[in-house]
Amino acid sequence: MPEPAVLKTFPQVDHHQATGELAKIYEDIHCTLRLPWVAFAIRVLSQFPHFVPAAWSALKPHMSTRYAEQGADLIRRAAIVAGAAPPNPQTKLIGRGWTTEKFAELQKVLNCLNYGNAKYLLLITAWNEAWNDRDAGGLNSGPKGRDAEVLPYGLPEGIEKLHLIDPDEATPAVQALMRRVRDSFLHHAPASDYRVLAAWPDYFEIAIEDVLEPVALTAQFDEAARKIRRIAREHIHGFSGRAGVSWHSLESKLSPTEIAGITGLLFLYNRFIADITIAVIRLQQAFEGAESATKNKFLS
After folding, report:
1. Which of 41, 56, 274, 297 could form a disulfide with 111 if both were Cys (CB 3.0 to 4.6 A apart)?
2. Residue 122 near residue 72 (C-beta atoms within 8 A)
3. In a 3-state reduction of DSSP, which class is residue 65?
4. 282-to-6, 26, 78, 179 alpha-carbon distances in Å
5. Close Cβ partners of 280 (under 8 Å, ≥ 6 residues apart)
């Protein structure tokens, strides 16, 4: 008998649940990375009280630079799946009554997600490499000149924090869509991006069926993911200091079970965020083409 299309919220400290020091860290992540949401990976890892504060403190000085911004730009440009371009969903959506204003609202959100996903891939790569005592920066003098400049602090002008639909509170139809995209890529839960896009269920359904499912688990998709993970790993080598913490450094504060849990989550999200980066760029590619979809729309 098929399993019911119910999707529970995966364990995490969601935005509205963060208090005290963690709430301040979430706000600092928003402002430092200039992003309107805190990544799913961070929200899940925040269940381990000692990890995120230490890892973010080590990473922040490096992720706030133009050098990190350039790394995200490199990731975006490499995130196009080889093969035919995805079909433009505009005609179907116009047939469902979509207006110019509604398209503009959706594309603004897609631009925000595409700006942020590549940054979060750098972040999780740095945390994963540092945790496992690999090169996460600090082995050379680091960025120089303009590359070392610090980015403006705060969200880009005109950008507000995104609303993520809670799977526990979503309608059965929206839960089914979230489950469908989750299972198409063999993920454990729907990404933040899909929780945002679920606000437009008619578009979300078309996006899954026409744009994402045709490339899910293909060799071309996996090759794009491998390529951008390599770019992220190589780029963090250029940070001026170690951009994360090793498990040895937190051994006195974490139990063996917690260390094992963090290790597994970092490995998982290093692949998960790469998948989401490619998938959501592909959604914007369907509207605007590859060049526009991979462009940095918020900082030149």
Report:
1. 297
2. yes
3. strand
4. 27, 28, 12, 19
5. 110, 113, 114, 117, 193
- Structural tokens at position 57: 């403190």
Residues near 1 by Cβ (< 8 Å), separated by ≥ 6?
none
Q: 207: number of CA atoms within 13 Å, CB side?
A: 25
Summarize the confidence of residues 45-71 as an average pLDDT: 96
Helix (H, G, I), strand (E, B) or coil at 150: strand
How many Å separate Cα 201 from the centre of its chain? 21
Q: How does DSSP assign 112-136, residue by residue?
A: HHHHHHHHHHHHHHHHHHHHTTS--
Tokens coding 97: 């009554």
Q: Give the C-alpha separation, 48 to 256, whole Å.
A: 12
Q: Which distant-in-sequence residues (6+ apart) come within 8 Å of 87 by Cβ?
A: 210, 211, 286
pLDDT tens-digit readout, 215-271: 999 999 999 999 999 999 999 999 999 999 999 999 999 999 999 999 999 999 999
| Three-class DSSP category at 243 | coil
CA-closest candidate to residue 117, choices 190, 51, 191, 202: 191
The tokens for 37 are 């949401």
Find out whether 60 and 242 touch, Cβ atoms under 8 Å: no
For residue 4, pLDDT over 70 is answered with no
Scanning the chain, the segments in alpha helix (DSSP H) are 20-33, 40-45, 51-63, 66-77, 90-95, 100-131, 172-184, 192-197, 201-206, 219-236, 256-288, 290-293
Half-sphere exposure of 231 (CA within 13 A, CB side): 22
Phi, psi of 51 (to 5 degrees): -80, -60
Query: In the block, which residue shows the tokens 């400049």?
Result: 149
CA distance 114 to 106: 12
Q: Which residue has the tokens 């462009």?
A: 295
Question: Beta partners for 150?
Answer: 65
